[in-house]
Amino acid sequence: LSPVDARNVLAGAQKGDVKKLAAQEEDRVIKAGPTGSIKLRIVRSEHAKGTLPVILYFHGGGWVLGDADTHDRLVREIANGADAAVVFVDYERSPEARYPVAIEQAYAATKYVAEHAKEFKVDASRLAVAGDSVGGHM
C-alpha cells in the first residue's frame, strides 16, 4: 500500500461505533520546530477546571501512519483517567517529512508547552511524556 492508502485503512479501522469519553478539545498550531509550525490537540476531561498536570502524547504508526483522529479515543481515555491535560503532538509523518523532522518537532513541542504552561493552563512541574510504538521511541 502507498502511505496514503495505508493511512486511509487505519482511519477506517478507527471509525465506527466505538464509545468515546466526553472531553474538551482544542486544536492549535504553534510556531516552533524545524518546519516553523506544529499541530497540537489539547484534550481535557469534560469537567476539568483550572491548571492541570500535562501529558505530551506522541502517536505510533511507523513514522508514516496515525494522527489526532486515529488516536482520539485513546487520548480521551488518558485525559479522563489521569485527570490531566493531554497535548497530542501531530508531528509531520514520513515520507512527506524526512528524518529528523518528527523527533525535532516532538522536542520543540515539549519545550514550547513547558515554556508556555500558563497559556495552556497546565502545570509544567507536573509534565510527563507518553507514546505508543514509534511515539514511545521519540
UniProtKB/TrEMBL annotation:
Keywords: Hydrolase. Residues 55-138 form the Alpha/beta hydrolase fold-3 domain. The keyword Hydrolase applies. GO terms for molecular function: hydrolase activity. PROSITE patterns: LIPASE_GDXG_HIS (PS01173). It comes from the Bacteria. Gene3D superfamilies: alpha/beta hydrolase. The keyword Hydrolase applies. Belongs to the 'GDXG' lipolytic enzyme family. This is Alpha/beta hydrolase fold domain-containing protein. It comes from Rhizobium leguminosarum.
